[in-house]
Specification:
Elements lengths: L1 E3 L2 H13 L4 E6 L5 H13 L2 E6 L9 H6 L4 H10 L4 E3 L3 H4 L18 H4 L3 H16 L3 E5 L3 H14 L4 E5 L19 H6 L2 H14 L4 H12 L5 E10 L15 E9 L2 E8 L3
Parallel strand pairs: 1-4, 2-3, 2-5, 3-4, 5-6
Antiparallel strand pairs: 7-8, 8-9
Helix pairs in contact: 7-8, 10-11
Length: 282
């Protein structure tokens, strides 16, 4: 695995590979690599000659400075996992190379970044869009891979690619889960053992919500049930549960309003914020 910390040498390396007709797959991450990330690496390896992974904890997408400070950073472990996982290129830039000056660029995605994650993390998706734009310009991938867990983010990046005419195809890869079905996330590393035992309740709530909606329960009834399930333990606090159209993120009043609804949830286990989602199959 080749490791690049500066932009120019990486671009030169990838130009030479493209001259040989090699396609480039890209997996952008913020590190704390886990099996979910490695599933994205494998998806890229299945479809491309070269797989590039970036590790960059992007300050522009953190609206809470304390959250940025606490974000897990495990560079040595990450490098070993990516190498063993078959990654070809690791891009590990410094903050001053990605942001030479304080940024004044802001993105506005209309309703897409005002609901769910956007409502509770103002400015988050603007920061995501900014760093993804930078990374797409640097790597110029043929394909880019993202996990389904961050579906709102994926939808926003899809709009970004369309609006700015990036020549990249996006792929969403199903969420990898722990044995108790908790969605794999770098933030899971911050959970205490007691919180970790309880965090699987998010998936249970999604599963029950899906079953109730299929049986004809109203969305209002389902939301009340989700809150009851999640907050049965006082250490778990529900932030939101919504059902949206998976294509345009319009929040639904009835599941019949969408051909492919998605159930989205966010909750705190102690001070650790967790998200998850589930498509509602018909």
């Amino acid at each position: 695995m080749q490791i690049f910390r500066e932009i120019a040498p990486l671009k030169v390396f990838l130009v030479e590979k493209r001259k040989l007709g090699k396609t480039v797959g890209f997996v952008p991450t913020m590190g704390a690599i886990h099996l979910g990330h490695l599933s994205l690496i494998q998806a890229s390896r299945n479809e491309n000659a070269i797989t590039v992974c970036s590790i960059f904890v992007n300050p522009a997408q953190f609206n809470n400075p304390a959250d940025l400070q606490k974000y897990p950073r495990t560079p040595e472990e990450d490098t070993a996992l990516l190498k063993n996982g078959g990654c070809d290129v690791l891009f590990f830039p410094a903050t001053h190379d990605m942001y030479e000056t304080e940024t004044i660029v802001r993105f506005d995605f209309g309703h897409l970044d005002k609901i769910m994650e956007g409502q509770f993390r103002p400015g988050h998706f603007s920061g995501v869009a900014l760093v993804i734009s930078k990374l797409f310009h640097i790597v110029e991938p043929d394909y880019a891979y993202f996990g389904q867990k961050d579906w709102q983010q994926f939808t926003i990046i899809r709009h970004l690619v369309h609006e700015l005419k990036f020549n990249v195809k996006l792929k969403s890869v199903p969420t990898m889960r722990e044995p108790d079905r908790l969605a794999m996330s770098s933030r899971n590393m911050r959970l205490t053992s007691a919180q970790r035992e309880k965090a699987g309740i998010l998936y249970q709530a999604l599963t029950q919500a899906s079953a109730l909606l299929k049986s004809g329960s109203t969305l209002e009834e389902v939301k009340l049930n989700v809150k009851r399930i999640v907050e049965h333990d006082p250490e778990i606090k529900l932030e939101y549960f919504e059902v949206a159209d998976s294509e345009n993120l319009k929040l639904l009043n009835r599941v019949e309003e969408s051909a492919k609804p998605i159930l989205c949830i966010a909750a705190f286990a102690g001070q650790v914020r967790l998200i998850d989602n589930m498509f509602l199959s018909r």
